[in-house]
Design brief:
It is a single chain. The protein is an all-alpha fold and 206 residues long. It contains eight helices and no strands. The longest helix has 28 residues. The protein is globular. It starts with a helix and ends with a helix. The model has no long low-confidence stretch (mean pLDDT 81).
């Protein structure tokens, strides 16, 4: 009973927390005057961070918390069912389409349509990290590492989170030895370098 009460408390806390983040987003996007902004409401130009820079990563935290609360309660059959993946695909597509729609409203200026918008990246991160999460549950560390690195490519905030999740699944869920966990981390690092090396060469090689 205590575990159920704790679970329900987390379910209640998640939308409340997300509501506060939405309020923070509205404040950041509507500071009153763009010419005389309160410094914490402005994004950092490059180095460092401000409170405004925490809004998007906190949204992704809410997405990850929702995955962590829902997926462990599914049966193995539910996790691999076609209905489950159709629901994931529909949710991802809706997030991407809503993001594109918000970017072209109200003028419908397709020439300046922002493809990698906020909702689009949240949708992609949701789908990729959910796939990685399920692959880790199945102890398929290779597939999970590929999905996790692809999520890092859409949003670098996962640079730290993905290896920590790998260690958690290896040590706690699957009870692998420390040596086996280190081998999985080395495999993740190799996949990370392989998939991200074209980006590094493009940005730093020239």
């Amino acid at each position: 009973m205590k575990s159920i009460d704790r679970y329900m408390a987390r379910l209640i806390a998640l939308p409340l927390f997300a509501t506060l983040i939405i309020a923070a987003m509205l404040l950041v996007n509507n500071p009153g005057s763009w010419g005389a902004m309160y410094a914490p409401l402005a994004h950092a130009p490059w180095h460092g961070w401000t409170p405004a820079d925490l809004v998007f990563p906190t949204f992704l935290f809410c997405v990850g918390m929702a995955i962590g609360l829902s997926v462990p309660r599914l049966t193995p059959g539910d996790r691999s069912s076609a209905a489950f993946w159709i629901k994931v695909a529909r949710r991802t597509a809706l997030l991407i389409l809503l993001g594109l729609l918000l970017n072209i409203l109200p003028k419908f200026d397709f020439a300046h349509l922002r493809l990698p918008g906020i909702l689009q990246r949240i949708g992609l991160c949701y789908a990729l990290m959910l796939a990685a999460f399920l692959m880790w549950y199945r102890a398929n560390f290779v597939a999970a590492s590929i999905f996790a690195v692809l999520a890092v490519m859409t949003r670098p905030v996962f640079d730290v989170a993905a290896p920590l999740l790998l260690v958690f699944f290896a040590l706690v869920i699957h009870r692998l030895s420390l040596a086996a966990t280190l081998r999985q981390l080395a495999l993740y690092a190799a996949i990370y370098c392989l998939l991200l090396s074209p980006w590094w060469l493009h940005n730093f090689g020239s």
